[in-house]
Amino acid sequence: MADDELEAIRRQRMAELQAKHGDSAKNQQGEEAKQRETEMRNSILSQVLDQSARARLNRLALVKPEKVRSVEDYLIQMAQYGSLAGKISDSGLVEILEKVSKQTEKKTTVTFNRRRVMDSDEEDD
Fold first, then answer.
1. Closest Cα to residue 89, out of 59, 44, 56?
2. What is the reported pTM?
3. Which helix (H) or strand (E) holds 37?
4. Percent of the residues in the chain that have a pLDDT greater than 70, as a whole number
5. 20 to 30 A from 72, CA-CA: which of 35, 39, 108, 114?
């Protein structure tokens, strides 16, 4: 009986190790795919932007990564469709940043709901 229990524990442990190894292989493939995508994005952006524009975009990425991601997507899309004549300078990047910020700008409104409360000062004449 002890041998049967020991064999069952071994099989269970082997199954756990195989599952864990399979998950790590999937994670590694996912990381490699992300790395390839990042390299592709960087190569396209280096072809599209000049050095000063690329430096500005990198500085902005420290503060607003979501905005930089949308600008990068926009630039990559423009490059893929061939609508860029040459490298984008710093001033051209500023114009694109302004355009993207206007499109994603959120308008907030503040409303005050004032409640009338019985105040003892109102009764004094």
1. 56
2. 0.60
3. helix 2-48
4. 88
5. 108
